[in-house]
Amino acid sequence: MKTILKPHWILSIILPFLFISCEDYLDRTPEADITEEDIFGTFESYMGYADYNYAEVVDLLGQYAPYVPYWGGEGLFIFSDKVTAANKGEYWTLIGRGLVNYYWVNNRPRIGDWDNFGEGGIWYGGWRGIRRSNTALLNIDMLQGSEEQKDIIKGQSYFFRAYFHQQIIEGFGGMPYADVIFEGTDVPKLPRLSYQETAEKIDADMDKAIALLPVDWDNSILGQNSQGTNTGRITKGAAMALKGRFLLYAASPLMNGFSNNDFSYNEDFSKRSAAASWEVIKMANEGVYSLVPWEDYGSLFHNNNDGTNVWTTETLWLKPTKEIGSLMWSTARLHWHPNYLGAEGGMTTASQNFVDRFEMADGSRYKVEYDQDNNKRWENRDPRFKANIAVDRDKVGDNVNSVWHGYVGDEPSARPNNQAASTYLINKFIPYGMNTFDNEWRNYQFRPSLIRLAEVYLNYAEAVTAAYGPLGTAPGASLTAVDAINIIRERAGMPLVTEAATGYDSFMDLVRNERSVELAFEGNGYWVDIRRWYIGHLQENKPLYTLDFDKDWTFFNRNLHTLRVFDNPKHYWLPIYREQVQLYPEFEQNPGW
Q1: Is 21 helix (H, G, I), strand (E, B) or coil?
Q2: Which of 31, 228, 266, 569 is 20 to 30 Å from the Cα of 332, by its Cα?
Q3: Is the keyword ATP-binding in the record (predicted)?
């Protein structure tokens, strides 16, 4: 198992002084008598400066695990909390200044530690990372080093400038593209670009990054001196995979509609997305990456309490961290456990709507009438169902008390006393035995990828279907959209499909369902997908249901838990803080806010 990347610590004292002012990162202070040459003159100090971009990356399933599934309808939350504001359409509350706002907006002045969860949030941390990238690119000629050293810094800086812009526009829509540094006295008046206009600039920077980044850091000239410590640095393959994702998002009906008033897939962006994903698939065909076998599926999301960091042959990129044990255990308890198994607070469980997406083992669709059938309700389902979810009476450890109780009753371990909103315990990130009865948790870590190979196949399938049809391929590719979907299904032991898409309205509908099932609860999926597919406002996607029953299973009733508020166009984009949009007239607020 590789050691996760460690940053260069030479600026651990310098940086807190540098980042006191967001107007000018290079202000000298009385406390730190340093010059630009001190920072940018040597490779080690330069990397120490640029490496803090890794700390700005928001870890969706570190600090924010219970929230993201809830926003998209995958999960349900029992307590009245700022999280519930999303389903009420109260996005001002959602990004307000409190615990939950860390995901979107957090104006903490400090950078944070290398192992934080991205404490600046996507907005403040993202713009801060963009400025840091621009500063690193601006001063590259000050580096007294080799061309390879300069390329390494430029490659990562181009990547992060693109990546942070992308993270911002996914929630807030098109933005000015900040590729220059403004002085503290400047009043920039750049108009907001459309989503697709911003995406074009992101793509141009991604291409620059891909040309400069190594395939494997350990095999590069610089990396050979630090083998085993570079895991987590962005690579050529990971950047190419993210390029494919970003282009697919730009191609999607929402983004195309708001850019061109055409709420269908954009053919050009779809073709470019398919081509980028195919480049990564070719690397997999050459042995650079591979899907993990089904028996090792859990290793994609957690270790087995053995003190190792989570990294597999399927992992393309994840946020580097050193944290194993108490911190990771604490967040896992908070997010995924009921109180009698070790929770510290409210937990997220799966909605019945989302559970319905898991097919039967024979590939047929789940039907509502199966709720009453003990042989079909939770049995004979897609193997990924039980890999993601524990149901009533399932053992989650060897101890006699390590049993999940999903029924409704008066007992302390029953719903709602166990703090669960639904019967479906999300166990994707929890290894067997990790609870207060079995007590196997001290060396535990959960750390899902920021992007993994399975998503690349799914991105490819969606883009190809949009551009060329289910049996089409990207130019020069040997894989159809149907083939790509079947690679994912075959790994899980599910029947292969054809372009006929039996049980679905279209093959694209099947692709979308496969994506939801494979990437369930991973933080990158359904809240983004339900918006970019332009289906959030449809009436069938507003009610969220639970399945309620008694201890003896004498009845099973679907009950409405939440009726989501999702207005078009208002709730397709987050509001931007008023103090931001009041800076100058060209920086417009999102529609409806």
Answers
A1: coil
A2: 228
A3: no
